[in-house]
Design brief:
Blueprint lengths: L5 E5 L8 H15 L6 E8 L2 H4 L6 H26 L5 E7 L3 H12 L3 E5 L5 H6 L3 H8 L4 E4 L8 E6 L7 H21 L1 E9 L4 H6 L5 H22 L7 E5 L2 H11 L4 E5 L6 H6 L2 H6 L5 E5 L10
Parallel strand pairs: 1-2, 1-4, 2-3, 4-5, 6-7, 6-9, 7-8, 9-10
Antiparallel strand pairs: 5-10
């Protein structure tokens, strides 16, 4: 697999247990075993302590010395973690001083052309995720390359990868993203010896229509919608040689259906697309990826549509 040759791992400064780094090593090891090239892995840590910036009694040079001292201390800590992992993968480490971690990460991706960002997740309150906009939220929306958010679920051999698609849409952006998601799932499945499943949700009868138009036949509407999405799913699955046994079409919200199917098949990884909304519409509408992340007990790989340009570029 030539896709992920340059991997950026976001280090969690609050713990010695770096699940994202371990996942990156596993992925790089599998890629190296199937490729002539050697994957580059960079362990990246963005740190900031406002108290050092507020030490007005010191000169700017003194404050800079203090910052460099903190950075050096974190570099030694990170190097010790990498050494303890005893991996054959060559891992470089970089610690930077930056007050907005997501900007530091995305700027690094843009400047160094990373193929994927791997980051561990924390369970966070859903209300806070809207109000305080955590790093995950920003990276999902603004990072131009794929983002793999790691949880505790292992990647067993012969496990299941769930690719979430939107086969009911005729929009060019969604069709292109469906193709990209399915290709990614097939490549990763071959790499880590996993099975590919496809999932697609569709909305049921709008409540207001059912109430305001009594003669409207909601059962007939739902049956028509189901058949339309099932036919579209068959067509999509056939393009990528995916067995119909491994396809799932259900009525409901995407975040509900994806979580339900992922749980049923004990998926080790869910792959989905994120359009990358920003601003007020993002806070109010949100993306499926963000709604899904807290509910899933497995890793999530979020892909951007082709041609996506980060607002930080």
């Amino acid at each position: 697999m030539e896709t992920y040759q340059n991997i950026l791992v976001v280090i969690d400064p609050t713990t010695d247990e770096q699940k994202a780094l371990k996942r990156a090593i596993d992925l790089a090891t599998s890629i190296n075993a199937n490729s002539d090239k050697q994957v580059k892995v960079s362990a990246f840590l963005s740190i900031f302590d406002f108290s050092y910036e507020m030490t007005t009694i010191l000169s700017s040079d003194d404050r800079d010395v203090m910052r460099q001292s903190v950075i050096k201390d974190k570099e030694l800590w990170l190097e010790s973690i990498i050494n303890e992992l005893q991996s054959d993968i060559k891992i470089s480490c970089l610690v930077v001083w930056h007050n907005r971690p997501f900007e530091a990460i995305i700027e690094r991706v843009i400047n160094e052309n990373y193929d994927i960002v791997i980051k561990g997740t924390h369970q966070h309150d859903k209300l806070k995720s809207v109000v305080f906009t955590p790093t995950d939220w920003h990276i999902l929306r603004k990072c131009p390359c794929p983002v793999l958010l790691v949880k505790e679920h292992e990647w067993p051999s012969n496990g299941n990868i769930l690719a979430a698609v939107n086969v009911g849409s005729d929009e060019t952006e969604h069709l292109s993203l469906n193709t990209k998601i399915a290709k990614e799932a097939k490549q990763l499945a071959q790499l880590i010896q996993a099975n590919v499943h496809l999932v697609n949700s569709f909305p049921g009868t709008p409540v207001n229509i059912a109430i305001e138009i009594p003669e409207f036949n909601s059962n007939e509407y739902n049956d028509t919608m189901l058949k339309h999405h099932e036919q579209a799913m068959i067509s999509h699955a056939n393009k990528f040689d995916i067995s119909m046994i491994n396809t799932h079409v259900k009525e409901g919200l995407p975040e509900t259906v994806i979580e339900q199917v992922a749980s049923e098949i004990d998926a080790e990884l869910v792959i989905l697309g994120t359009i990358g909304r920003t601003g007020i519409s993002a806070a109010l509408i949100g993306n499926t990826a963000e709604h899904v992340i807290d509910q899933l007990n497995c890793d999530v790989l979020a892909l951007k549509p082709d041609g996506y340009i980060s607002p930080l570029q």
